[in-house]
Amino acid sequence: MAKPIPANLLFKHPVLFFATGFGSGLAPKAPGTFGTLAAIPIYILISGFDAASYWITFMALFLVGILICKKATEILKVHDHPGIVFDEIVGYLITMYSLPQHWTMVVAGFLLFRLFDIWKPWPIRMLDKTVKGGLGIMLDDVVAGVSANLVLQIGLVVLGYFGYFLR
Question: How far apart are CA 38 and CA 92, in angstroms?
Answer without folding.
Answer: 10
